[in-house]
Design brief:
Blueprint lengths: L20 H10 L14 E2 L11 H9 L8 H14 L3 E5 L2 H12 L5 E4 L4 H9 L3 E4 L20 H11 L6 E4 L12 H14 L3 E4 L3 H11 L8 H10 L3 E5 L10 E5 L2 H14 L10 H13 L3 H20 L12 E5 H4 L9 H13 L1 E2 L1 E3 L1 H4 L1 E3 L2 E3 L5 E5 L7 H16 L7 E5 L5 H4 L1 E4 L4
Helix pairs in contact: 1-14, 2-11, 3-11, 4-5, 4-10, 6-7, 8-9, 8-12, 12-16, 14-16
This protein binds ligand F0G.
Ligand F0G binds next to helix 4 and helix 5.
Length: about 450
C-alpha cells in the first residue's frame, strides 16, 4: 500500500471552535497582535507548538491511573528511570518538570560567567538560560544550513571546523558542547550520525563533554534511517542508542518526543555533575524521584518514550509533515527544505518580501494566518532572536514562521484546510503591511511582547 495512514484510531475527541474573520480580527487586536496571548478557545487549528500538545495513547492513560504518587521512591520513577536508561544508556537519571528546568539546573550548576557553550543552534530557552548565567550561547550551524531552499539532508549539523577553532582558542571556557537533535531553531533539521561522530571525537580530543538536547531525538533517528548510508536496516531505537553512545549525557523536554503533556529530563554519566544538579533540583523542583512531576506523569512519559520510537508512527509522522511542506511548496510558498520533522517553516522574509526587517515579516505573517484562517503559528526569527544593541536592532539570520504539528492530534483534512487557507492568503499577501513593537521585554520577548499594526491592513 502506498497510502500512509494515521497509525491510530481516535477514541476521544475535542471539538474545535469556528469563528468568523471579523471576530478573529477583534480577538488578535485585543491580544496586542501576539498569538501567544490568544485564548485557545478562539483558535481553530493550533500549530503554535508541538510541545506538550500531543495526544496520549490508551496505554499512557492507563499508566496515568496506575501512577504511584509516593513522595520518595515511587514505583513510577523506577519505570521512568528504566525507560530512560534503555534509550539513552547514561548512568544517572533525574526527572524535571520540563525541558527548560533541566536547562536551568545544568546552567546554574555547571556554567560560569564568561563561559562559552557551542552548539548547532540553541533553542531560545536554552540560549536564555546560558546567557542568564553570564555565558555565551554560541551557534555554529553548518554552512549548508544558510541556503534555506537546498535539499541538503542534514542541515541541522554543527560546523565541526568552526567548533574545533572555538575549542582551540577557548578550551578552558567551554564546560560542554550541546547538540540539539533535531535542530528546532534551525528549521527542524536533523543532525547526521557522521556529524555526531566527528563532534564527539573533537570533544574527546579536548576533554570536553558532549551533551544532547534530545527533545526530538526519535525524529532525528528516523531521518538518519531514511537519509544516511548504512542505517536503513536499523530500528529507530538502535539508531537513537548509537547517537547517545557518542555523548556524555542529555537534556530533554519530554513534551515532544516522549508524548508527554508535561515533563523533562537530565541524564548524565558524571557523578560530580549529577550531585550538584541533584542538590539544586531538591531546592526548587522536588525530591529526585519526581523532580516536579506527579507519579502519573512519570508513568505516561515512560510509556511515551517507548511508543515514540515505533517505526510505523515515525513513518507517518515524517510523511504527514512533508505532506504539508510539499503542498505549500507546490503553491510557490517559500518553505525551508528539506521539510523538518515536527514542523514546516515558511521563510517569511522571502514570502513577504515587500516588508523590511523592522516591519517584522515573520510575526506579521503569524498575525495574518490567525486573522485570515484561524490558524495559530509561531515566529522563529526577528522577534524571538532579534537583539537590541546600543539602541539598534540586530536581526537574526532567518525570519521563519513555524507551522508545528502536534503529535497524533490533527488528521489529513485539518492539514488540507491549512493548505487551502495559506493559498488564499498568498494571493493577497501584499495587504500585510507589517507590525512594530509597542512593548518589548528584555528576556524571551516573543512570549509577552505587544505590537501595533503599521498602517491599515
Ligand atoms: N529544547 C528544544 C530543542 C526545544 O524545542 C524546547 C522547547 C526546549 C528545549 C525547552 O523545553 O518547553 O519543555 O521547557 N520547545 C517548544 C517549542 C517550546 O515550541 O519548540 P520546554
Amino acid at each position: 500500500m502506498k497510502t500512509i495512514i494515521e497509525p491510530f484510531k481516535i477514541k476521544v475527541v475535542e471539538p474545535i471552535p469556528f469563528l468568523d474573520k471579523k471576530t478573529r480580527r477583534k480577538i488578535i487586536a485585543e491580544a496586542k497582535y501576539n498569538p501567544f496571548k490568544i485564548p485557545s478557545k478562539y483558535v481553530t487549528i493550533d500549530l503554535l507548538t508541538d510541545s506538550g500538545t500531543g495526544a496520549m495513547s490508551t496505554a499512557q492513560w492507563a499508566g496515568i491511573i496506575s501512577g504511584d504518587e509516593s513522595y520518595a521512591g515511587a514505583r513510577s520513577f523506577y519505570k521512568f528511570e528504566e525507560a530512560v536508561k534503555s534509550t539513552f544508556g547514561y548512568k544517572h537519571v533525574l526527572p524535571t518538570h520540563q525541558g527548560r528546568a533541566a536547562e536551568r539546573l545544568l546552567a546554574q550548576a555547571i556554567i560560569k560567567k564568561g563561559d562559552i557553550i557551542p552548539g548547532n543552534t540553541h533553542f531560545d530557552t536554552t540560549q536564555a538560560n546560558i546567557e542568564i548565567s553570564g555565558a555565551t550561547a554560541l551557534n555554529l550551524p553548518c554552512k549548508e544550513s544558510k541556503d534555506l531552499s537546498s535539499d541538503y539532508p542534514f542541515k541541522g549539523n554543527i560546523d565541526t571546523d568552526a567548533l574545533r577553532e572555538v575549542l582551540e582558542e577557548n578550551r578552558d571556557r567551554v564546560p560542554f558542547v550541546l547538540l540539539t537533535i533535531t535542530n528546532n531553531s534551525g528549521g527542524g533539521q536533523p543532525v547526521s550520525m557522521a556529524n555526531i561522530k566527528v563532534t564527539s571525537a573533537i570533544c574527546k580530543e579536548f576533554g570536553i563533554p558532549l551533551l544532547f538536547d534530545a527533545a526530538r531525538f526519535a525524529e532525528n533517528a528516523y531521518f538518519i534511517k531514511l537519509r544516511e548510508n548504512g542505517y536503513s536496516d536499523k530500528s529507530p531505537l538502535e539508531i537513537a542508542r548509537e547517537i547517545f553512545s557518542y555523548g556524555d549525557g542529555a537534556l530533554m523536554s519530554m513534551k515532544k518526543d516522549a508524548f508527554g503533556n508535561i515533563g523533562g529530563l537530565i541524564t548524565l554519566n558524571s557523578d560530580e555533575w549529577i550531585e550538584k544538579i541533584r542538590n539544586l533540583l531538591i531546592l526548587t523542583e522536588g525530591f529526585p524521584t519526581y523532580g516536579g512531576l506527579a507519579g502519573r506523569d512519570l508513568e505516561a512519559l515512560a510509556i511515551g518514550l517507548q511508543e515514540i520510537v515505533d517505526e510505523e508512527y515515525l513513518k507517518y509522522r515524517i510523511a504527514s509533515t512533508s505532506y504539508l511542506g510539499k503542498h505549500l511548496d507546490s503553491l510557490g510558498i517559500p518553505v525551508v527544505k528539506p521539510f523538518g520533522g515536527h514542523a514546516v517553516y515558511i521563510d517569511a522574509r522571502s514570502f513577504l518580501d515587500h516588508l523590511a526587517n523592522e516591519q517584522l515579516p515573520g510575526w506579521s505573517l503569524t498575525v495574518a494566518m490567525y486573522e485570515e484562517i484561524g490558524v495559530r503559528c509561531c515566529e522563529i526569527g526577528n522577534v524571538m532572536f532579534g537583539k537590541v544593541v546600543n539602541g539598534k536592532y540586530i536581526w537574526p539570520d532567518k525570519d521563519l514562521v513555524r507551522l508545528a504539528i502536534p503529535r497524533r492530534v490533527y488528521t489529513q483534512s485539518h492539514v488540507d484546510y491549512v493548505i487551502e487557507g495559506v493559498a488564499a492568503l498568498a494571493e493577497q499577501k501584499d495587504r500585510i503591511k507589517g507590525l512594530s513593537f509597542s512593548y518589548r521585554p528584555e528576556v524571551l520577548p516573543h512570549f509577552t511582547a505587544e505590537f501595533t499594526k503599521v498602517g491599515v491592513w
